[in-house]
Amino acid sequence: MKVGIIGTGYVGLPTGVGLAELGNQVTCIDREISKIDALKAGKITLYEDGLEDLFHKNVKEGRLHFTTSMKEGVEDADLVIIAVGTPPHPVTKEADMKYIHAAATELAEYLTGYTVIATKSTVPVGTGDDVEALIQKKNPFADFDVVSLPEFLREGFAVHDFFHPDRIVVGANTEKAKNVIKELYKPFEGKTNMLFVKRRSSETIKYASNAFLAIKIHYINEMANFCEKTGADIYEVSKGMGLDSRIGPKFLNPGPGYGGSCFPKDTMAMSYMARQNNVDMTLINAAIVGNSNRKKQMANRILDAVKEIEKPKIAVLGLAFKDGTDDCRESPAMEIVGELLEQGADITAYDPKAMGTACMLVGNKIQYADNMYQVLQDADVLAILTEWNEFKTLDLNKANELMKHKKIIDCRNLIDGKQANDLGFEYQGIGR
Ligand code: NAD
Predict the structure, then answer these.
(1) Which pLDDT score, from 0 to 100, does residue 332 have?
(2) What is the DSSP-derived secondary structure letter of residue 95?
(3) Where in the chain is the domain with CATH 3.40.50.720?
(4) d(Cα 134, Cα 367) in Å, to the nearest integer?
(5) CB distance 383 to ligand 1 below 6 Å
(6) Is the CB–ligand 1 distance for residue 182 below 6 Å?
(7) For 118, how many CA atoms within 13 A lie in the half-sphere containing its CB?
């Protein structure tokens, strides 16, 4: 199948590479010239485990192409996937649709023959109707259908999730469009759940899923607070909860709050849509407020640990919003760093993959270390903010020698608290 993908970001690029690997002819389109130049020159523009090798393989085998030209990517395509950003509107926090609307309008004039336009971006309910209307207005003779094809990949596991999806949800209003998507996902037939639903249901499934996961994270963080006050251990509690098949063991890890480019914006967009439709969504609203407070609480924990020290030096391990990615968008780590900077903190940080993206956000307001031990030199407190496996191997004896004061605030519970205490560290984890 000939596929054009508009938007070559964290969703568009892994999707493009994955579809090429399945044997499709894929053209990835992005308006950012530097991104396309880099990709054409064989340089991958984001970090995802396993993506680089597949990217090179498919470019070499002639199935994966990159362009800034909408015409080149869209004409002759059987399927055009929209994977542009839907960031929160700066004022209302609803999903800002300007990139979707621009993409729909721009692609319209280049459609030839019957084409399915699939929206992979996370979009408010009813967007399929808007995209359809925009294309029809620009190109009244176009032969096309618009389907909703929400993306459920987890950053850090994008390649794995592409090839092993839990489910594929398709919101198609015509049989013809449904058959095109069935053909696309034929290699997954019998291997995953394929759910064909109304377009509006499909758009809603994505928001309902993300909001539910955000609430689950917020819930376990509140339970962690409760455990800290009562002497219970959040890991024993979440294990006991997770063994109930109605609850399940996933997303019961306490931490510094949810972040990333999806949960914060999608909960706010869902809340906005609910208000627009006069529906009360108290759970989502509570999670939004509680999660925002959580990051301030974590920053206060770190500041509290060094409140007696004049001009404390804070060592930060982890800047990405989660392990396995270089993405710092809405990263709890970055928000905590921001809070600390507001209080005039002196911060040195290290992240295995996200130093470049973090630097684009905070520049030289913090110092960057080359490894996790350099960060500890003369530090008064260590704050662990992202759950990279590498940090679990931290040699506490070495840390003991390097740090000025022996204090650890472990927002990801990566360190053995007992060992840290035995070595004389003041150690604070989460929920125990
Ligand atoms: P991103 O910002 O990484 O990438 C979007 C890309 O689209 C950018 O490279 C941008 O230059 C390009 N673009 C914007 N308008 C364009 C246009 N008119 N023509 C060509 N290119 C254009 O965004 P992302 O993280 O890939 O997210 C994309 C969508 O997928 C969002 O709606 C998001 O909510 C959703 N989503 C993201 C994830 C995730 O983990 N990142 C997971 C599921 C769904």
Answers:
(1) 98
(2) B
(3) 2-197, 198-432
(4) 47
(5) no
(6) no
(7) 28
User: Which atom of ligand 1 is nearest the CA belonging to 84?
Assistant: 7
The pTM is what?
Answer: 0.94
Grade residue 107 by pLDDT with cuts at 50, 70 and 90. very high
CA dist., res. 181 & res. 119, Å (int): 12
At 379 the pLDDT is 98
Topology of domain 198-432, CATH: Rossmann fold (3.40.50)
How far, in Å, is the centroid of ligand 1 from the Cα of 30? 10
Which of 95, 384, 136 is CA-nearest to residue 266?
95
CA of 100 to the centre of ligand 1 (A): 10
Q: Report the distance separating Cα 337 and Cα 347, nearest Å.
A: 8
Which residue's C-alpha comes closest to atom 17 of ligand 1? 103
pLDDT digits 0-9 by tens, 238-284: 999 999 999 999 999 999 999 999 999 999 999 999 999 999 999 99
Q: Which of 11, 47, 125, 127 to mutate to test the pocket of ligand 1 (most atoms within 8 A of CB)?
A: 11
Q: What is the per-residue pLDDT for 214?
A: 98
CB proximity list for 420: less than 8 A, separation 6 or greater: 396, 408, 427
* DSSP 8-state secondary structure symbol assigned to residue 88: B
For residue 380, how far is its CA from the centre of ligand 1 (angstroms)? 39
Residue nearest to atom 4 of ligand 1 (CA): 9
pLDDT band at 51 (very low <50, low <70, confident <90, very high): very high
Q: Write out pLDDT tens, residues 138-181.
A: 999 999 999 999 999 999 999 999 999 999 999 999 999 999 99
Whole-number pLDDT of residue 357: 96
Beta-carbon contacts of residue 222 (< 8 Å; ≥ 6 apart):
290
**CATH architecture for the domain at 2-197:** 3-Layer(aba) Sandwich (3.40)
Taking residues 19-36, report their average pLDDT: 98
- Helix, strand and coil in the chain, % to nearest 5: 45, 15, 40
- Kindly report the average pLDDT of the chain as a whole number: 97
Phi-psi region of 347 (alpha: psi -120 to 50; beta: other; left: phi over 0): beta
Q: Give me the residue label for tokens 């690997």.
A: 21
